[in-house]
Amino acid sequence: MFIVIDGIDGAGKTTLANLLAELLKNRRPLVTKEPTNESEWGKRLRDSARLGRLPRDVEIEYFHKDRLAHLERTIRPALLEGRVVIADRYVDSTLAFQASSPSDADKLYGQLAPEILIPDVTFLLDCPVDFGLARIKRRKGKLTQFEKPETLKRAKQIYDSRRGDHYVHINASGSVENTLEQAKRVLRDRFPSVLGENPNSQKFDSDEPGNSERVVFG
């Protein structure tokens, strides 16, 4: 099973990835991240976050080449072994940070999608830009080139526009536990065997009074 977690910086992607890995530990989960440190393109992109962004076309090319290498070297081999792969960022990050608008993102996705693997589910974590920036500043203080407010506002607009069978929009403005529970609910509903549970026997926490979850399917 291939799970992707995406969203603006500070939305809690890495935290959710690690919590899901713990939840699915019996499936030998592999948590991975883009851009990678394993390809020359990924390393150049990571450097650009510190030193200054590259031209748009170059960024798109490097992200795509890094992703193809990531699929070949890491993701597909793990899936063939029967492991769950949890990716912290994937193609929607390229759309959010390199496209100029939702319509431009749709066009770019049409160009990139034929060469990549479509995830079983993509969790898009939704939170206000100010909320994400506050989390970033508490965690590390200094912002990268990709974490400027105007950049994140455009990225959020594109993330919010993404639709499709594998997309699930999750409200990540609450507690870590609430975000995890929303993701668990989706896995129980759509992929009960991954959790080793019978979906007909589950009573979800989200059914209890006072729970503020909001899960929007693609």
Q: How would you characterize the overall build of this protein?
A:
- The protein has 218 residues and is of the alpha/beta class.
- The chain has one domain (2-217): Rossmann fold (3-Layer(aba) Sandwich), CATH 3.40.50.300.
- The protein contains nine helices and six strands; from the N terminus they run βαβααβααβααβααβ.
- Strands 2-3-1-4-5-6 form a six-stranded mixed β-sheet, with helices on both faces.
- It is globular, with a radius of gyration of 17 Å.
- The two termini are 18 Å apart.
CATH superfamily: P-loop containing nucleotide triphosphate hydrolases
How large is the share of residues in beta strands? 5-15%
Counted up, domains total 1
Beginning-to-end CA distance, first to last residue? 18 Å
If you consult CATH, what is the topology? Rossmann fold
At a glance:
The protein has helices spanning 13-23, 40-51, 56-80, 91-98, 102-112, 129-139, 149-161, 176-190, 192-195, and strands spanning 2-7, 30-33, 85-88, 121-126, 167-171, 215-217.
Question: How does the SSE layout of this entry go?
Answer:
Elements: E1 2-7, H1 13-23, E2 30-33, H2 40-51, H3 56-80, E3 85-88, H4 91-98, H5 102-112, E4 121-126, H6 129-139, H7 149-161, E5 167-171, H8 176-190, H9 192-195, E6 215-217
Parallel strand pairs: 1-3, 1-4, 2-3, 4-5
Antiparallel strand pairs: 5-6
Helix pairs in contact: 1-8, 2-3, 4-5, 4-7
